[in-house]
Amino acid sequence: QVQLVESGGGLVQKGGSLRLSCAASGRTISTYHMGWFRQAPGKERQFVAVIRRSGVTAFYAESVKGRFTISRDNDKNTVYLQMNSLKPEDTAVYYCALGKYYGLPSFSNQEYDYWGQGTQVTVSS
Prior knowledge:
- By secondary structure, the protein is mainly β.
- It has strands spanning 3-7, 10-13, 18-25, 34-39, 46-51, 58-60, 68-73, 78-83, 92-98, 114-115, 119-124.
- The strands form two sheets. Strands 2, 4, 5, 6, 9, 10 and 11 form a seven-stranded mixed beta sheet that branches. The protein has a four-stranded antiparallel beta sheet with strand order 1-3-8-7, with no helix packed on it.
- A hairpin with a 6-residue loop joins strand 5 and strand 6 (58-60).
- It is globular, with a radius of gyration of 13 Å.
């Protein structure tokens, strides 16, 4: 069984920073791509970032590129999302997700089978 638990969300001023963590249990994540997604009220869940299982290659949504950094520590079975220069448009519930152990990382939420409960990020203007 696998559980993903996000933490680190909160209320921050425009231009501020937050660091989200996703702690996994029940399964080692070292062989899986790991992704971050976000969802605002009334909106579909959107891709934010994904990191390859090797930890070497990462991909980002255009809206966060240059501001967010995804990383992983396989020894701690944890994935992180460092968010800098936050904007009100970044306000959403952020979810981490366990992806595939084969092929290339995916930008689609359909390719992720396990999700955390989400952590709220609110950016005020």
